[in-house]
Amino acid sequence: MGAIIGGLYASGMKGPELKSYVLDELDLSSFMESQVFKMEGPVGKLFQTGKIIGHAATKPGIDSGEKVLQLMEELTNNKKIEDCEIPFLCNAVDLSAGREVFFRSGSLARAVRASMSFPFVFEPFIEGDLCLVDGGVSDNMPIKAAREAAGELNIKRILAVDASRWRNIPADSLKNGLSVVLRCFEAMVHVSETEGDSDIGNANLVVHVSDKTSAFDFSRKRELMGLGEAAVLQSKKEMDAFFSSGLKGALARRKKVSCGIIIEDYYKLNNTM
Q1: pTM of the prediction?
Q2: How confident is the model over 124-149, as pLDDT tens digits?
Q3: Segment (H or E) for 134
């Protein structure tokens, strides 16, 4: 999702326009080919189980991602990364060579499609000799790459948003293969961050914002946007310091180089605001 939102913003879609589109028009399930993402109820779940087993046995992903790619091409007006109004970079992992890949030029839509190729859900994106999957497999918060690119552009500060806070769950809550895959991905990111392999500490400011919403649950878009807005409002002091220029801003940032704002429960927060 970071590549999707970042790519659309970099291509020229303004904040209010992006918010309106996400709330009123964006339903990723309608742009996916597999009926697995579209059926509800007991019959739907039974059908999904059969489809998932069939796809897992015969294809490299539940969905090919072709319709999503077409959507991204339409929304970005087929822009190249180097032609974007705002500098853009995203990562993916090449399964063929076992290495992280960074996109800084070429088709913006194809870069986003590669970066969002969540294993098992989307088929890997084939680009020449590359077999690309979600960049989070290697680094879910590629701050080092952002800092290197920022240095070339004379950008001195990095603001990171972390929406993947770890929570312990009951052992019997993993009911199907997809939930296990999602949890494995979350655990991999968590281990990376807690074992010191993550670059998150190298950001000048980190805003933590998450609740218990599943990574593939888009039913609460408005509430999740409100959650993000609340996190920013709660970190206003740190944000002001981050964007301030001159000696005053530099001194403020030295006092709090990195700050995390964590909101446990959006509804509880909403009832107290």
Answers
A1: 0.79
A2: 999 999 999 998 888 888 888 888 88
A3: strand 130-134
